[in-house]
Amino acid sequence: MLRGEFQLPIDFDLAAVTLLAATGALAGVRKRYDLVGAMALALVAGLGGGLLRDGIFLQGGPPAVLTDGRYLVAVLVGGSVGTWFGRHLQRLRLPILVLDALALGIYGVVGAQKALDAGLPALSAGFIGVVNAVGGGLLRDLLTREEPLMFQPGEFYALAALVGQLVFLPLVVTLRVEPAQAALWSIAATFATRLLSIRLGWRTEAPAHVDEDRHPPGA
Q1: pTM of the entire structure?
Q2: How many separate helices (H) and strands (E) can be counted in the chain?
Q3: 3 within some domain
Q4: Number of folded domains in the chain?
Q5: Which residues contact 60 (CB under 8 A, 6 or more apart)?
Q6: Is 170 a member of any domain?
Q7: Residue 72 located in a structural domain
Q8: How far apart are CA 89 and CA 218, in angstroms?
Q9: Of 32, 176, 187, 214, which is the most buried if we count CB atoms within 10 A?
Q10: 8 A C-beta contact, residue 22 and residue 99
Q11: Residue 62 contacts by C-beta under 8 Å, 6 or more apart in sequence?
């Protein structure tokens, strides 16, 4: 049990919210939504993972993202930046990928840390960390009618978040590395895994029998 033994600085959490809010706003700009639509996506992308974490899994009272006004300020900042720069960028894929990869790593360690601090075992904390990392992006994609990245065979997404957990949890639980330092290693691992999977073509694949069902012999 690691209840109360460490806390990551809130700056990690706010940074993740800001980055994810920016990706939500960028997605709205790409879909040619108006300012209200883009900011709504910023809100969902920025706070969705935290709401899932606190509202479903930890249930320690009102979600932290709603009781601390700094989170809404972070959404406003990220959404404003994403909307402003999104309207001046012709190719949005790269900035969205970079911001999303950073946020994926940061929010993963924040979710795991909060679960550990609530007294949950490391395995459960890792699961919550992954959910926390991908939740906002999942809701963002669903609202924009995009197939969520975590459901698609292809580039590592949820798997990248899992790699971050496999770095973070042994460092803080077993080796007792200082939490902020362990978090930086985890974020770097997630970020590198996500971007390298894109750059080098590392991909997950659908089960072989799925392709066989879609293309039966002689079809």
Answers
A1: 0.81
A2: 9, 0
A3: no
A4: 1
A5: 54, 118
A6: yes
A7: yes
A8: 47
A9: 187
A10: yes
A11: 54
